[in-house]
Amino acid sequence: MLPLIRCGVLFGSTRKPEQEAYPLIKTFSLTDIGKKRKLNQDFVYTSERPVGNLPNVFIVADGMGGHKAGDIASRCTVETIVEEIGKCRETDPVRILRLAIEKANEKVRLLAREDENLAGMGTTVVAATCKGRELLVANVGDSRLYVVGRQIRQITRDHSLVEEMVRLGGIDREAARNHPDKNIITRAIGATPSVDVDFFQVELQEDELILMCSDGLTNMLEDEEIRMILHGQRDIVEKAEELVKAANNNGGKDNIAVILIEPAADEVEHD
Looking at residue 14, what is its pLDDT? Predict the structure, then answer.
């Protein structure tokens, strides 16, 4: 089981590395407004201590909507998920995350109905919890979770129009990167009365790093660029900051959110 260290919570563009004395897990999180946007609509949350019946919780949400609606949608989603996990009596992690995300969907839709300025708002969400070497991931939208070691593996599957086109063979990956409709997503929190959540279970191997991020990072950097940056920096803080710097150097067309989770070498056992 992963050791439990002090909760580090990051909202909006605030950032803070973990600096406590518990040595067996390291995390760092940050968001950045990017070079083109006037508002930061990305929202992140990390807790290495238990939240309810989950041993830890990590969340990235990328909001969308006019005025400040995207910021409200992402903030509401993250806060609702954390609150619901905290009071849930279920013990099955999949059910805990599913119920929390469904409640967040209800809450976002309720706020949008109550205020016409928030009509049509929504957000992506990717949430994860880790127990020992077992990683559980929940996903709605096109924010992503990667596992990075000698290779980089995208664990989540984008819920986007372009991803569907790739899956059906209409276009290839190279064409997808620059497709004019690449920002159209097919699932989002707040979009429909019920939300369909994808779940993934991953067995972590030695020296693998977990990256959670919004598309403000992945639209600016190829997967191999991400892998090289993560292998080129020794400190987890430097890794995250270099990712954001590289995305901004490539144009910074959107807000950028990053969570890095580095399990201890002796926590992820050898086979």
Answer: 31
